[in-house]
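hey m, so remember when u said the tokens were messed up on ur end? i reran from scratch. heres the input so u can diff it against urs
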Amino acid sequence: MVKVKLLEDTGDSVTLQLDGIDRSYANAVRRFCIAEVPAMAIDDVVFLENSSVLYDEILAHRLGMVPIKTDLERYNLPEDCDCGNPLGCHKCRVLFVLDAKGKDKVSTVTSGDLVSEDRDIRPVSETIPLVKLAFGQSVKLEAYARLGKGKEHAKWQPCTVAVLTDGKNEGTFNLMVESAGGLRAGKIVLKAIELLEKKLQEIQVSVGSATA
């Protein structure tokens, strides 16, 4: 019988003790936390103006790596959305706008300068530096965030750490997951288990159909 004991939950990180479970299944949960649980990240950037010292591609990459608050109930993965629009819709993408100009002294544009059309979908921190602007320089752009999976790109990994270690007692394991900030760590683990169970059910149905 599988037993799960909560050892620690700070919101940003969670540690669980797993008992009565095979190591391979426990490790599968860990891997799903990293690669299969969706997270929100900026994926497309349209530059209207950029006279900063950074090329468009470099700034777009920096924007993509900014951790963003995620809502898995209100937003769909693009491939699961019924809009059928390659540009997305309000159910599968969020628009961010950045309009910054250099001041008398060199100023730093941060993640807090990004304005989201959804106030609940925003950078996890407002102090992440994006680019420095001198007087006369400016950046104006539109950035579109969407859900994705860590197996596609690291920017969609919902956690920064997911570690499975042996527990104090034989046959037990400790799973520690640290969130990147977009989702609560506990939510990441629960979603990983849900997705793993769904995948196993799909395999069972496929095998059953093949051997019928």
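this time it looks ok to me. The first helix runs from residue 23 to 35. if urs says something different then somethings off w ur setup not the seq
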